[in-house]
Amino acid sequence: MKFWAILPAAGIGRRMGSSTPKQYHSICGTPVLIHSINRLLEIPEIEHLVVVLHPKDQYWPAFNFSNERVSTVTGGEERVNSVINGLQSLSGQANASDWILVHDAVRPCVTQSDIKNLMSQLKESKVGGLLGAPIDNTVKQLSDDNEIELTVDRSQLWSALTPQMFRFDLLKRSLSNAVSINLNVTDEASAIEAMGFKPIIVPGDKSNIKITHDSDLELARYYLSIGGKT
Predict the structure, then answer these.
(1) Is the dihedral of CA 22, 26, 28, 30 positive or negative?
(2) Could you give the strand order of the β-sheet that contains 3-9, starting from the edge strand earlier in sequence?
(3) Which residue segment(s) compose the domain that 116 sits in?
(4) 142 Cβ partners below 8 Å, 6+ apart?
């Protein structure tokens, strides 16, 4: 049983209002994407990392990034298609029961300890799971007119983080199923759930933020400056 990783980095970051994709914004002189790659490479158990790039990516070649444990493939129209492309690139190396870790390119603050804990907690699971964090804020459900209809009980609500880790064959079948039935899935766990399986949540640090808006860059810079590799 081996561990492999896929890092979808084919998004164009519309919500940041910038012509530069968010994974290529710089934090402490290093692009977000490179931070995320390095976090995964710090885990020696990960055999290989596939970075999935946009077909017209003009930024990656400029980095001259080279590591024998890293390769790149072209992404698809949506995240699900990009991850499928990453899986296909590993099909000649990974076995059906091997583990695949899928990590957001724009989560550069994930810690070594969280990744190792995810791998340790789930290594005997037949399905897999993901890092997650409990929701602290009060959650409101709104009507179409933005009127509050109810306050949602948050006691069992968690935010899904990454990496998300599943068996190679199960993940490939689940994502292919999602595409075939035109199911809108925003993460890998959603596709697994649609197949009738129940992924496990492993508590992760809330510093593992997803960079979506400009303000997230400053917060990520802070976490990286104090967090090190723990």
Answers:
(1) positive
(2) 70-74, 46-53, 3-9, 99-102, 158-167, 128-134, 200-203
(3) 3-227
(4) 148, 149
- Measure the CA angle with vertex 224, ends 33 and 58; round to 5°: 15
Helices and strands of the chain, counted as H and E runs: 6, 11
The two most distant CA atoms of the chain are separated, in Å, by: 54
Q: What is the mean pLDDT of the segment spanning 193-212?
A: 96
DSSP string, 68-136: TTEEEEE--SSHHHHHHHHHHHHTTT--TTSEEEE--TT-TT--HHHHHHHHHHHTT-SSEEEEEEE--
Q: Report the number of distinct structural domains present in the chain.
A: 1
Element (H, E) at 101: strand 99-102
- Lookup result for tokens 């444990």: 69
pLDDT tens digits for range 60-80: 999 888 999 999 999 999 999
Against a cut of 0.90, is the pTM above it?
A: yes
Question: DSSP labels for 1-42?
Answer: --EEEEEEE----GGGT-SS-GGGSEETTEEHHHHHHHHHHT
Tell me whether residue 67 is exposed, middle or buried, using C-beta atoms within 10 angstroms of its C-beta: 0 to 12, 13 to 18, 19 or more: exposed
How far is residue 22's CA from residue 18's CA, in Å, rounded to a whole number? Answer: 8
* C-beta separation of 85 from 53 below 8 A: no
> Tens digits of per-residue pLDDT, 136-163?
989 999 999 999 999 988 888 999 999 9
Residue 52's CATH number: 3.90.550.10
